[in-house]
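User: Response regulator transcription factor, Corynebacterium kalidii:
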Amino acid sequence: MTHPPSRPLNLRLLNDYEVVVLGLRSMLRPFADRIRMVEAETGSVSDVTADITLYDTFGRSQVEGLDLDEVLRDGDAGHVVIYTWNMRADLIRTALDKGCRGYLDKSMGADALVRNLEAIGNGEVRVSDTADFFREESDDRVDSVDSVSDRGFWPGRDAGLTAREAEIIALVTQGLTNAEIANRCYITINSLKSCIRSAYRKMGVERRSQAVRWGMENGMTPPSARGRAPQRS
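Assistant: Predicted structure for Response regulator transcription factor:
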């Protein structure tokens, strides 16, 4: 049985998108006596000591990237926990093998999130039970873009973009090619193109250059990518 800690856990969220950070802060506000967000800002590694660092994969490399390796080497990060919609078994195994202490589904409610964070703070390793980790091995690529939950916070939600569509448009805005985006999101090129078409209709754009401009005007550009010239697909 997990017992709440004697003091609030210091939680740091790593995500470059302001709406995501503010959304998590709002979701956890009723649990301020149990979870205290430190450096709840956009950005990456800092000098603030955390008990737990949530590594949010939205718009950034998944667990195989160097970004995560840097966080795991940070002595102020505490327990590193992946916070994602991508619950593939191979990614979970990679994260745990690297030393992450948890792999949590972003679709879970606030109470479940807090309970899992407290368990991790007590030394447990937690993986969401929605993960492919508990089912048969998943394929390397999926043909559906609808498997991502629509619960949570992301830029472009107010415009009707799903979480998957928003992440793809964020990566388009960052200048990644279609091949790079498909590899990062673990979807097929055909699924990616279908998702882009759907997003374009909701955004009211027709061309990639228009999508990049829309993304820049709607919070899709993280601070680390501002000023970088977009690439062509």
